[in-house]
Amino acid sequence: MPDGWQWDSTLFQGSAAYYERGRLPYAPGFAETLATALGLDGRGRLLDVGCGPGTVLLAMARFFTEAVGVDPDEDMLAEAQRQARRRGVTNARWAAARAEDLPAGLGEFRVVVFAQSFHWTDRDRVAATVLEMLEPGGAFVHMGDLKNPPAEPTPLPLPAPPYEEISDLVRRYLGPVRRAGQGKLVNGTPNREDLVVERAGFENFQHHVVPAGEVVDRTTDDIVAWVFSRSDSAPHLFGERLEDFERELRAVLQQAASENRFAERLPATEIMTWRKPHGER
Hints:
- The chain is of the alpha/beta class.
- The chain has a domain at 16-149 and 187-214 and 265-275: Rossmann fold.
- Helix content is 32%, strand content 23%.
- The chain has nine helices and eleven strands.
- It has helices spanning 16-22, 30-38, 55-60, 74-87, 123-133, 163-174, 193-199, 220-228, 242-256, and strands spanning 45-49, 66-71, 92-96, 109-115, 134-145, 179-180, 183-184, 203-210, 215-219, 261-265, 269-275.
- The strands form three sheets. The protein has a seven-stranded mixed β-sheet, sandwiched between helices. Strands 6-7 form a two-stranded antiparallel ribbon.
């Protein structure tokens, strides 16, 4: 959990509706890569902790008998249910809970995944609990965008989103320290998941990078949705100034691309896995 920060229920308040449009997808083929790495065969159960609108769970559900998504945000779970119906995923179910509420009577799992969510938790406590919830040989999975990828030599066909200018605008409205719910992240979010997970008793670390690099078109509305999908610029943080902020945000985007079209490269996806020792129950 970030230093000096306490979780509260407003962390992603109002953001669920913007996820599908605003967030870039994980690298194509990430689900198949993970299934191959873990030897998945359609059996066992998946637990996605901090599942949000079901982005990872819905892609992985076909490799399991059942997939369970846990998230404390009711709007995220409602969006996940809508996406499951739209995609015809019938073996998923959802539970409103924090990671610290586990095991929450959910039973045993073959795989537990954290997709850009582990840093929000009491990591040592949660990792120890996950170890107990996994079947022998089961996998703890941490995944997210690859940080600090090599520079791409080919220029983009359209302007890139002006992320620095967007960050400056958010700071002007919300202050210089990153917001997170009702608190602030003075020192950012923690990393070195490997140390935490191995300290809990997991072993057999493996690292996988799923390449992407495809160039995708993004509209002004896509970038606005990205801003509001984030915890540090969730809609509720702006209060009565929300309309003013969005008006200025759109002006920044209009200045960066007069035709309101941008281009981005999909980031590679980084997947880290560890195993529960076979001798443990």
